[in-house]
Design goal:
Length: 566
Amino acid sequence: MPSVINHFYRFGEFIVDADQKVLLRHGKPLLLAPKVLETLLTLVQNGGRIIEKEELMRRLWPDTFVEESNLTYCIVQLRKTLGDEARHPRYIETIPKRGYRFIVDVEEVLSDIGIVSDKVPRRINTQVVESQAATNPSSERVASIAVLPFLDLSPERDQDYFCEGLADELINTLASLPNLHVASRTSSFRFKSTTLDIREVGQRLNVNTVLEGSVRKAGSNFRITTQLVSTVDGYQLWSRTYDRRLEDIFAVQEDIAQSTVKALKVLLSSDDQRALQRIRTTVIEAYECYLRGRQLFHHMRRRSLESARQMFLRVIEMDSHFGPAYAGIADCCSFLYMDWGGLESDLVDADRASSKAVEIDPNLSQGHASRGIVLALSGQYSEAEREFETALRLNPKLYEAYYYYARACFSQGKLEQAAVLLEEATAVRPESIDALSMLGGIYRGQKREQLKKETFKKCLAAAQNHLEFYPGDIRPLLLGAIALIDLGDTKRGLEWTRRALELESEDPNVLYNAACAFCISGELEEALTCLEKSLPFCADRKWLEYDSYLDPFRSLPRFQALLRSP
């Protein structure tokens, strides 16, 4: 009997690839969290049949107790992706007090050397056997690429921010294309100035191409040399050298992106073409300040955030209509408010800047994500949710939108919804230590032992990979310490925690995470001491109510007194 190559379901303009676990619309993959995709696949495979809520939950979360809101959230996300409505459903019908039913016609499709199975029940099944080249979405695999920071070959070797910024802008531009998988900034930048063979870099980043290059900048002139290399065999796919003046940098960036897309044979819609032609400031000095601000922001320390804010302020002094700079100011102020002081002035500045960002450019996804976190910090959760949903509609690959949205849900005690969003965040950026640690903490509080263990293993691996290249970074050291302790390596976890405190003993964010590590290790006295020092700077006290890392000393009078303190 001929073997089945691929097995997928088609309805309307959508195809669900059951083997690759991906949803495609007109051949383009759509980003869905694993549980949301599983929900869709279960509904599709049972087309026409009412599936009870209890049955769906047993299939999606076997051997694990979860609340019904988890399932509801998955259905809501599916409807948004499919363009469906609960009141007038085209795809998913709600059966009140019972469950759901998939109501559209479904075709079960196999490749030309496979056989259509009759075993899967469906409302209407038109059996289709077509040529693989014509209909098999697996024949158009999603291309993948990592963009490495460009090497600084300038005479003074003082253009590090420019080299990182150039790579960062290319990552953001290429990542907006649905048919292209792009390794995140965090992953790619670990291999800055690497001596590893390009094939090993590709293997570590799970990509089949790498874009790398160098910059030589002198005064208002620059030379950029770049090449796209296959990580399968190490061969060069294309290379370019640009000798230009600084005001041509945007044209060069666009040409590099277009050449990359062409070389990878990525199909572009008209919207994708517009994404490659991103709106940027026309003031070169402002752009350089923006790149410096972005570099500083990613360090996520109090001093770096304050310096980044100053850089973004300088940008808008030179170009008051550059939306991303306002979003940058908002993010700096939001994080300073959350973790480094809780100053009302920071929240006011974040509110003004985020409002300006979306006013200037309503299609700027990062502006809506920035606006969302500000509204959430102000307690305007319904308005925040609308902003996050807008950000994700504009860019379904925007990690910050998922992560900020999850934080807002966490602060409201909506832990199941926060977990789903964090799953989506880690699907976009698998090595995100922050999202993995937060997700592991939620699973910890829910007693979902297997998921917790798997998540903390990923968190630890991500922290170790980062520290291999940046051993002085404190946050991965602390979040890695928490993962180590929860996985049973308490001695090593405490060593990492104390090492972090040696590097920075007064930072409120460092102290809070150290308190979490000490707490789950049983070192309650040290945990409370760190928490007492940190808490006066914590603006979001609701976070403490739901943080499972603090559970070991919730019954202690000293902790209860801390919660009541102003």
